[in-house]
């Protein structure tokens, strides 16, 4: 008689893909808070432009400096938002997959944003320092805001309170 199962060479029991380690709970797929990130980005752009305009009035910056900082900030914010939307945050995925996609998105935006700012600087007659500083400020504000929104959503969906245990 022939053996219906090929012998794998190991004497122990074979593991199947349905076996799970003891004590491990499956992570349900969930989307990221896309609407909250879109709203926050819009508010950041508006608030950032208002703050730059106000600071320009107080400190006597030229119109080109104010415009350069605003254009740099908008460019960086759109680069951050584009990298976020590229991972399709409205689709449901496990949190482990989201962590990997978000890290890749952060790396891409870190490389793409300076290229976008340099392109804007090269295509316009705006002061380079203003474009760079406005872009850098909005890049980091956008990254921090996005991180806080996503972290709160993940903690809430996992059943944790963002205020700690009481």
Percent helix, as a range, is 55-70%
How do the SSEs run, as a string of H and E?
A: HHHH
Helical segment tally?
4
What number of structural domains do the residues give? 1
Distance between the termini: 66 Å
Number of strands: 0
Secondary structural class: mainly alpha
Strand content: under 5%
Roughly how many Å is the radius of gyration?
Answer: 24 Å
Residue stretches low in confidence (pLDDT < 50, at least 5 long) are none
- Tell me the major beta sheet: none
What integer is the average pLDDT?
85
Query: What's the overall geometry?
Result: elongated
What is this structure, in a nutshell?
By secondary structure, the protein is mainly α.
Please tell me about this protein's structure:
The chain is mainly alpha-helical. The chain has one domain. Helix content is 66%, strand content 0%. It contains four helices and no strands. Helix 1 (34-59) packs antiparallel against helix 4 (128-157). The longest helix has 30 residues, at 128-157.
SSE layout:
Layout (H helix, E strand, L loop, with lengths): L33 H26 L3 H24 L8 H29 L4 H30 L9
Helix pairs in contact: 1-2, 1-4, 2-3, 2-4, 3-4
């Amino acid at each position: 008689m022939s053996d219906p199962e090929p012998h794998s060479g190991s004497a122990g029991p074979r593991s199947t893909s349905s076996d799970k380690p003891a004590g491990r709970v499956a992570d349900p797929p969930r989307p990221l808070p896309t609407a909250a990130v879109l709203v926050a980005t819009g508010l950041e752009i508006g608030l950032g432009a208002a703050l730059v305009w106000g600071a320009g009035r107080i400190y006597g910056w030229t119109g080109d400096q104010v415009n350069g900082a605003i254009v740099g900030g908008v460019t960086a914010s759109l680069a951050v938002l584009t990298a976020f939307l590229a991972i399709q945050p409205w689709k449901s995925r496990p949190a482990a997959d989201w962590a990997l996609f978000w890290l890749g998105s952060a790396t891409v935006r870190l490389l793409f944003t300076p290229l976008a700012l340099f392109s804007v600087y090269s295509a316009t007659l705006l002061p380079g320092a203003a474009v760079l500083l406005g872009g850098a400020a909005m890049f980091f504000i956008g990254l921090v805001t996005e991180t806080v929104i996503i972290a709160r959503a993940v903690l809430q969906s996992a059943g944790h309170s963002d205020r700690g245990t009481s």
